[in-house]
Amino acid sequence: MKAKLEVVATVMMILAASAVVALAVRSLLAPSTAAAVPPPNPARPPVPKERIELRGATTRGSATARVVMVEYSDFECSFCGRFARETMPSLVKRYVDTGQLLIVFRHLPIEGIHRFALRAAEAANCAGTAGRFWEMHDALFLNHTRLDEGSLREHAGTVGLDPASFGKCLSEADGSKVQQDVAEAKALGIKVTPTFLIGLKVSEHEMKAALRLDGARPLAEFVEALDRATRPASGRQP
């Protein structure tokens, strides 16, 4: 009788141990299984429904171009700098230089984390009064970690601006023109940089956005969007 009880006890111990092992294996496998299932893609940010005013904006390209890309940017933003250095030259060559695209630059300095961004935007605008906005744009993004007052004056010299005229403009700048761009961005629900709105002109000074891209997107995404936008109306996909 004692031997039978010992056998039963042994079997029960084996079954209990097996159950513990099974639970342990299941708990180890569960995280891997969950991780293998990709999270749902976040929804794209909404495209503004309002018409976007182009009057008075800094532009690059032909005024007769049908397709417009508005960029909201910050000179101290590393992702904005990446776009300016690595992506924009290809877009300019492929679409701007061929007369298909008008690029519109709007300031959106994120002052909460970028202490020099507003001043850099004012410096770019001062360069713009001398017809050197895009040269200064490139210089600032090439040196986006050197945007203090002294560095801004140094960059102005490298793009051929008169030191006295530039210094006077910068000392008199009150940020109001930059803040107009910031207010427009907020009204359109744009809070991050860089943000791009791509669409068609609906009048001489207005465009209607059809696509919004946020962040430093790969060149292929811009090419896909702009190829679709610049395609003749009869050849566009519905």
Describe how the helices and strands are arranged.
Layout: H1 2-36, E1 52-53, E2 58-60, E3 67-73, H2 78-96, E4 101-107, H3 117-129, H4 133-142, H5 149-158, H6 163-172, H7 176-187, E5 195-203, E6 206-214, H8 219-230
Helix pairs in contact: 2-8, 3-4, 3-5
Tell me what you see in this structure.
With 238 residues, the protein is an alpha+beta fold. Helix content is 51%, strand content 16%. It has eight helices and six strands, in the order αβββαβαααααββα. The protein has a six-stranded mixed β-sheet with strand order 1-6-5-3-4-2. Strand 5 (195-203) and strand 6 (206-214) form a beta hairpin. Helix 2 packs parallel to helix 8. The longest helix has 35 residues, at 2-36. It is globular.
Q: Which residues form runs of ≥5 with pLDDT under 50? A: 1-11, 13-17, 19-41
Strand count, sense and closure of the main sheet? 6 strands, mixed
Would you report the number of β strands?
A: 6
- State mean pLDDT (0 to 100 scale): 85
What is the quaternary state of this protein? single chain
Structure class: alpha+beta
